[in-house]
Specification:
Layout lengths: L10 H15 L6 H13 L3 H12 L9 H14 L6 H17 L4 H13 L11 H8 L4 E5 L7 E5 L5 H11 L12 E3 L4 E3 L6 H8 L1
Antiparallel strand pairs: 1-2, 3-4
Amino acid sequence: TAPGPCSYTTLRDEAVKLFNSLQQLESERDPVPLMQGVLQTCLDLPPLVDEIYCQLVKQTTEPPAPGGQGDLHYWQLLTCMSCTFLPSPPVLRFLRFHLDRTENRFPASEMAKYACFIREALGKTKGRECVPSLEEILVLMQRQEMICTVHCPGAPACSVAISSHTTAQEVAQELVSRLGLSQSPNLFALYEQSRRREQPVGSATLLADVLTRFE
């Protein structure tokens, strides 16, 4: 196997490292950095995406303590994976069967709530440019949305709730409606501003990716 980008070794070695990370995740007091590391490796080495999905399905099938902290850490990483990557069709079918089985066996449980969230996310995920930010991972662990602040010329800053799938165009349209500009002949867009430059955000760009770049 050819070495991956950055400082990665072979896919086989990286798969072993990820497996060790998953084992560590179960007892990790602050799992967020570890989760982001797993996601980043999958983004850099796409062939490992299916491997991690399969490992997470395995870890959440017949766990020693269903609904315990370790079990929920696996479900939380599975949630982050579902908002970042789509598995191959065979793995996706396997994953959906696992989600259905979990909801049937543990109705109204936290695992069932994660399973429902993951199923909905898989229907929207198209791939990410960046892995979720630390803030996004935290809100995904709670199955919540992020609050994004947009500064509007001539108007107060607006707070907008966004998900991992919200595009710049969707936010721009919501702000136009809020500000009563729906009948304006002007075109509106979001701009990303840093210390060095200001540039428009593409209409199809995911706001979550923009926030990760800021992080």
